[in-house]
Design brief:
This protein is mainly α and 230 residues long.
Amino acid sequence: MHEPNKRPNRLIPLLLVVLIAVAAGWYFKTSQVEKQALSLLEGDDKLVEIYQKALTREQQAKQESDNFSFHNAAFFHWKSLGDSTNEEYFYRRALKISNEALKNEKARSALFYLNAGNVHKILGEFDQADKNYHEAVELNEGDELMWLARIELWQYWDKKDPADVLELYDRGLNVLLSAPNLAISRGSYLASIGDYQQALSVYEAARVAFPDQKGIAEKIQELKYKIETQ
């Protein structure tokens, strides 16, 4: 009895060819994106210097993975290049180094999440920015800055429903013992959505609670005028 002829499996070589082609295409695309981004630095010695510092700090972060000051420095160098050129590639490099740091439990700090959230916000990735800001608040809910970052995202960028924004303000104010900027920001938001009476109440309470805070008296007069002329 003869064994059936075994036909060579041509599928595996074909799949390998496809995978190689995809990988080559991805590399070419990545290389082109990088070249395009780096071309924006040409002729600007200051930006070239920042780029070199970013590479150096990134390399140091790889060599000393528990020294998060290198990750932080590399992050800000890449972000600085993004801010200067408005090029997404540099922002992605900033996020890459930040994400690498956050894989280590020791690096889970509110500031790391806050900084990553700021970059996602710039890129229009509001859901991811909100996740980062939420983590920042969870890790340091006593810091007014963390609350303000998330509220600003909801208020100006993601344009959440006013009821949701005000609820987030209230959550922050209930947690923080003293939050003059958060309180005044809440009053300003109420005024921006036309609730002048509530805004006035907030500012009047803020004047009592934070007598040294500048600009409150002027805002109260402005709101009183708006209420009278409605």
